[in-house]
Amino acid sequence: MCYVVLCLVMLVADLHYRYLEMVRHTLSVVTYPLQVIAAAPADLARSASTYFGTLVSVQAENADLRRKEVQQAQQLLRFAQVERENQELRDLLGMAQSVQSRSVAAEILYDAPDPFSRKVILNRGASDGIEPGFAVLDAAGVIGQATRAYPAQTEVTLLTDKDQAIAVKVARNGLRGVLFGNGDGSLELRFMPVGSDVEAGDELITSGLDGIFVPNLPVAQVTAVTPADAFLRIQCEPLGHVERATQVLVLGRAEPAPPLPDPDSAIEPPLEQLVPRPIETAAASDSARNKDAAKDKNKDKTKGKDSAKDKGKDKEKDKDSATKKEAEASAASEGAQAAAPDAAQDKSKDKEKDKPKDKDKPKEKGKKAADGKKPAADAKKPAAKPDADAADR
Amino acid sequence: MQSTNLSDRILRPAQPWFIDLSLIVALILSYVPVSRLSGWPDWMALTLCFWSIRQPQYVGLDKAFLLGLLVDIGHGVAMGQYALAYVLLSHMAHTFSRRILWFQPRQQALHILPMLLITQVVMTVVRLIAGDSFPGWTYFLAPITGALLWPALSLLLLWPQYQPEDRDDNRPI
């Protein structure tokens, strides 16, 4: 009787709270050799079938692979260059770097013999750098997610497992959604309102918004879209060979995604947003966030406020100019003139860099000159803020 | 007249090492990747049930619990699913062992079948509560193949106990 109670407690602790992962990892050391022995006949059968596979099929496959290699070689050659270029452009814009990934090649040992779920076991584990949450993909697309990393093995939950979810977006238009497994081998994009721009044939790629998956991995293709009551019923088919893959790549983020912002600091009171000069309030909130920054930055901050005020004026002017097209050119010249001294006050180095650009830029679009100037001058500040906040925490 | 049954042969005592070995072999068999082949018997349940009937003092609930946990981990399911099922199976086997041993292996199989079915039902209920989908009725083929294999399994597992103490080819019996 006490064993039954113990089992029930364990079930609840494992299913609801995931308390027993440590016990599981420890005991997996015992079961691992037995699992290898048990998987040996299947391995033998597989290698035997490969060995006795006809020469013709191997030659055909070889020719196919060579053709693909030639096709992809030039893409690969350009890839390094494009990536470097992308990084430089991002540096220039002061944007966060694109997500760096790390990958482990692995082989599927066997299907987990559990008829209730769709899981597979890989022959690589935590000792190879695999962590729970990593994406698992074959040559065509994502097939699942690593859900448990044992020392020498990884348990992968396939996309088709019931209620296995993955954050995706439509490659064509960037529409975001969450893709769920149905448990019967098909996938469904749920909770898309009627009228969403999704068509049969659309490709779905990972959005990376979950903070777990690497963005832009191919996942699935929409096969049918039928309107239901409030949401569309969108049936999808995985692009990867979810149930048949043998060689897979385990892909994860090299560093964890940045933490979600603190909800208290993120929410602005709605009344303030209605104040006619939104930029100023933004600057004020910025300065409020910067309260605990170093004192020597205070000068910059006040200057920043001044510049923000100026900019607010500019913005108003811009608004007017938006209604009156003919006044645009004059506002532009004013904006550019107003912004340039601020930048000069802010940082002399930046001024050195930025001025020539402004000179190069013709004044054809005043808006861009005025608005584009500001982010360029302030580019370093927002980038520095999260660091300062992180350091404070 | 009292019915004769075949299991009244005088057996040699069971060797603990052989029981342990058979349980480990069953554990390995339960790990064999058959990719959800329906009807693949639950070797662990069968062997555990057999020894729980034959040697209740040696194979108790503790062993059933531990082996259940190892199967849980090997199958990557919630900790306690197989453990719960095996503990219940072992308990049922202990309860009915006096009765079951009166019958021939083929009739014993008819007793084993409902016990194996109950373990499957327990596991199904656990998984349905946990939110998984129903795997289909073929899931319940496994107890049937298990029961069909019972006579052969009994013969195999009792083989060492059938061996005479000292082999004498000239002995009349």
Overview of this protein structure:
The complex is a heterodimer of chains A (393) and B (173). Chain A contains eleven helices and twelve strands. With 393 residues, chain A is an alpha+beta fold. In chain A, the strands form two sheets. Chain A has a six-stranded antiparallel β-barrel. In chain A, a hairpin with a 5-residue loop joins strand 7 and strand 8. Chain A is globular, with a radius of gyration of 28 Å. Mean pLDDT of chain A is 72; it is low at 280-289 and 291-393. In chain B, helix 2 crosses helix 6, helix 4 (81-100) packs antiparallel against helix 5 and helix 5 (105-130) crosses helix 6 (141-162). With 173 residues, chain B is an all-alpha fold. Chain B has one domain (15-28, 43-160). Chain B is elongated, with a radius of gyration of 17 Å. At the A-B interface, helix 1, helix 2 and strand 1 of A face helix 1, helix 3, helix 4 and helix 5 of B.
Give the helix/strand layout:
The complex is a heterodimer of chains A (393) and B (173).
Chain A: H1 2-17, H2 21-52, H3 55-93, E1 101-111, E2 119-122, E3 135-137, E4 142-149, E5 154-158, E6 165-170, E7 176-181, E8 187-190, E9 203-206, E10 218-227, E11 232-238, E12 247-253, H4 263-266, H5 270-273, H6 278-289, H7 298-323, H8 328-346, H9 348-360, H10 366-378, H11 380-392
Antiparallel strand pairs in A: 1-2, 1-12, 2-5, 3-4, 3-12, 4-5, 6-7, 6-9, 7-8, 8-11, 9-10, 10-11
Helix pairs in contact in A: 6-7, 7-8, 7-10, 8-9, 8-10, 9-10
Chain B: H1 16-31, H2 43-54, H3 61-75, H4 81-100, H5 105-130, H6 141-162
